[in-house]
Amino acid sequence: MQLPDYDDVCRAHERIAPWIHRTPILTSATFDAMTGARLFFKCENFQKTGAFKSRGAVNAVFGLEEADAQRGVATHSSGNHGMALARAAACRGIECTVVMPETAPRAKVDAVRGYGGQVVFCAPRNTARQQTLDEIVAASGANVVPPYDDARVIAGQGTCAKELLEDVEDLDIVIAPIGGGGLISGTALSCRALSPHTQVLAGEPANADDAYRSVKAGERLVEDAPDTIADGLKASLGELNWGIVIRDVDDILLASEEAIIETMRLIWQRMKIIVEPSCAVPLAAILHHPERFADQRVGVILTGGNVDLERLPWL
């Protein structure tokens, strides 16, 4: 499949506009003081379904031809993409099936079902997700909407950085989490088109560092079952995503499990907003590398706020 470009992002933005929020950008004097930078937080935790994933899912679902759409859609997801796809399918009036690992947070499972999606559980391994999805698609004929390795999804996710760069001028850096690579790929497309001088950085859990190791090795590496609190970042980089990451992402910074949890808690305490562990990874990376960001204007994409309130990691 051909890599998407910024024109695809623009078309996606027009297509999804009626179905998503243009999310706000918040600042924090506390975090500015802690980092020595000027931070601008793009709050996708306020997005429809509580995460940026709605952008790519809506673009994929509403880009289907009518005959294809009637076959429904299917995917695998740890939660946020599944929720987004279930909602997008409901908005279009078609069926949706989501393969989820048995370890997925209950809040995300309930949300997928709440949006009308059917949940099929699998073992908590990336290979098990794909195998189960393949079986469902073979039986149903549903359209597969991958969570990240898909040009439609990447273009939709790129609308987040597009809005950020339109709303905040002269950013030196934009940083987002990296897992499968849908968001960081789309972010890179928008940054290279709208603000070529802006560095594109990714934050990744040290316990799920396949993207970091892939860049160092010069080839895409796959990890099947990483163990990290950041459940939304367990997936390995997709092939399309790797093509954009190796070309357009300037660096990947790692964050420890302890730093992710502490940063998540700090965001709750200082900014008074709910974010999930995956969402805290970029700021955790910034706090661990303050010299990299000092005196810089930095856009930070806060990716989502879907967290099980009964199982907060600091309790």
UniProtKB/TrEMBL annotation:
Residues 18-304 form the Tryptophan synthase beta chain-like PALP domain. One of its GO terms (molecular function) is pyridoxal phosphate binding. The keyword Transcription regulation does not apply. This is Threonine dehydratase protein. Its cofactor is Mg(2+); Mn(2+); pyridoxal 5'-phosphate; Ca(2+). One of its GO terms (biological process) is D-serine biosynthetic process. Belongs to the serine/threonine dehydratase family. The keyword Lyase applies. Keywords: Lyase, Magnesium, Pyridoxal phosphate. It is an enzyme of class 4 (lyase). Its EC number is 4.3.1.19. Signal peptide: none annotated. InterPro entries: BHydaspDhtse, Ser/Thr_deHydtase_PyrdxlP-BS, TrpB-like_PALP, TrpB-like_PALP_sf.
